[in-house]
Every structure is written in C-alpha cells, then in structure tokens.
Amino acid sequence: MTNPSILKVENLSKVFRRISLIPDPKKEVRALVEMNFELKKGDSLGIVGESGSGKTTVARIISGLETHTSGKVHLLGKPLSQWLQENPVEFRKSIQYVFQDPIMSLNPRKTIYQTLEKPLKNLTELSGQERKERIEKLMELVNLRPEFVHRYPHEFSGGQCQRIGIARALASEPKILVLDEPVSALDVSIQAQILNLLMDLKEKLALTYVFISHDLSVVEFICDRILVMNRGYVVEEGDCDSVFRNPREDYTRKLIASIPLIQFS
Ligand SMILES: Nc1ncnc2c1ncn2[C@@H]1O[C@H](COP(=O)(O)OP(=O)(O)OP(=O)(O)O)[C@@H](O)[C@H]1O
Ligand SMILES: [Mg+2]
Q: CATH for 5-257?
C-alpha cells in the first residue's frame, strides 16, 4: 500500500508588507519564495537555514497561524483554506505547534492542569473526568510525574517546561507536530533528553514531524529528510545522510562546518 501524502506545499510564497501610504518595494520582505515539499506519514523533515531564512514563516503558515501570499498548502489532500473554512477544529487537532521558548510559551498564571486542559476543552468533546484521565496520560507520555499538574510554570526547569509544551501539543492527538527550534533555548544536556523524548514519541504515536532548527546536528539526530533555506529560497534538499555527506551548495557546506561537536545519542 502506498503511503498517502499528509502535507503538501506547492509554490508557497509569503511577502510581508510594512504599512506605508505609498507602495514601496523596499518595504516588502520576501520571506518565502515558491517553496515546494511533501510529507508522508511518519516522515521527519528538518528545515534549516540562517536566521531570517523563512523557517518560522513556513512553520506558521502550514499550522494556520499565518496567511500566505500565493501557492498552495494541502493537509490530508484538502486545501488549507477549505480546512479553515469548513472544519477549523479538525484542522487544529491535526497539526500542532511546539514553540522555541518553553517558559515564555506557558501562561505563568495557569497551572499545568489548566494549560493542558485548554486544548482538550477547545478541540475535543471529552467530559471533565475524561479530560483528567487524558491529562494524567499526557504527563506520563512526556515523563513528568502526574502529581506535578497543579504546579505553576515557574516551579519547573526549562526542560520540564518544554515537556509540558510538548504535552500540550499532543493533547488533541495530532498527526503532525511542527517543532520550531524546540531545544535551542535549552542547555545541551537537556537538549539531548528532549530530543530522545521526541524520538520516542514519534515512534509511539506514529507522528510526522516538521522540525525547524538552525542547528544541523540536532536535525541530523532527529530527521530523515532535510530542506536547506536561504533568504526565503530552498537551496538544497534531500535525505539527511546524503546532504550531510555530500552537500551540493556552499551555503550548506558552511552550515555544516559551523556544527559544534556535540553527540546527542
Ligand atoms: N510579521 C512579520 N512582519 C514583517 N516581516 C516579517 C514578519 N515575520 C517575519 N518577517 C521577516 O521574514 C523573514 C523570515 O523570517 P522568519 O522568522 O521566518 O525567519 P527564521 O528563519 O525563522 O529566522 P530565525 O532563525 O531567526 O528564527 C525575515 O526577514 C523576517 O524579518
Ligand atoms: Mg524562526
């Protein structure tokens, strides 16, 4: 049986325009230019590139958090615009975002229970008791003790906060996780723990990952395919092994040369 396309991006472009009275091309930022890629179930695609190359822009567009200027995005064969119009709840259940800064991404005034309950209330029909059980399971999934749920974010370390961010993203049982620099704010030893957790979860829950990083060593550890971006353009793509072993572009070679010598496994 062929593995169906889970996410397809065709000629995707995004221009940010700064507001001004007179049209001025210098006030336009071409954040994405005619981007194409396709994900099958179980893929993990790494998107790498220097700061400002358009990584977060593509992540936000495919997650429905940002509009695009032209091109197409299909999730499970259906256009993004149709999903958002006809079934936004089902769309949000299917694709979830994990943010870079684990502490900032949690509301300091909400307990972990309240944080994890919000997507369950918004996106599922679970009863109060069912939500409680699901929250316990989510805590276990990310290796946090269930009795911690009544604590507040400031009582957790950065790594623990990122585990909570991941649990929140998993609450609605998504098919795709978009992870935007999920470990770059963490110490290296903690990064390894979170990356190992992500590898386990991907296997256990049959997830598909879009994994964004400026750090190629992290992508090499997690991903099987890689897209290299420079100023909104995809300049190189392929499976991780061949791009790492035999990069075509100077830009990719420079990114690889800047990898610090860290082993995550
Ligand atoms: N809301 C916005 N308004 C105007 N320009 C924006 C906006 N968001 C992003 N940009 C611009 O689009 C380009 C791509 O930004 P993006 O955030 O996607 O880069 P990135 O690859 O994620 O960078 P980083 O590694 O620093 O996170 C940049 O030039 C950025 O300044
Ligand atoms: Mg970014």
A: 3.40.50.300
Residues with CB under 5 A from ligand 2 (ion): 55-56
pTM above 0.85, yes or no: yes
Look at the block and give the residue holding tokens 């954040």. 31
Strand partners, 180: 212
Kindly report the CA angle at 76 between 72 and 78, in degrees rounded to 5?
50
CB of 206 within 6 A of ligand 1: the answer is: no
Using the mean position of ligand 1's atoms as its centre, give its distance from the Cα of residue 176 in Å. Answer: 22
Give distance in angstroms: CA of 121 to centre of ligand 1: 32
pLDDT digits (tens, 9 = 90+) for 150-162: 999 999 999 999 9
AA identity, residue 23 = P
> Which amino acid is present at 61?
I
Comparing CA positions, the residue from 56, 16, 54, 64 lying closest to residue 179 is: 56
DSSP state of 151: S
CA distance 27 to 250: 29
Q: Where are the domains of the chain?
A: 5-257
Q: How many Å apart are CA 35 and CA 234, to the nearest integer?
A: 7
Asked if 94 and 161 touch (Cβ cutoff 8 Å), the reply is no
Look up residue 228 and give its amino acid: V
pLDDT in tens, 22-58: 666 667 899 999 999 999 999 999 999 999 999 999 9
- Compute, in angstroms, the gap from residue 255 CA to the centroid of ligand 1: 19
Ligand 1 binding pocket mutation candidate from 26, 50, 56 (most atoms within 8 A of CB): 56
Q: Taking a C-beta distance cutoff of 8 angstroms, is the pair 77, 18 a contact?
A: no
* Residues 19, 12: Cα–Cα separation, whole Å: 22
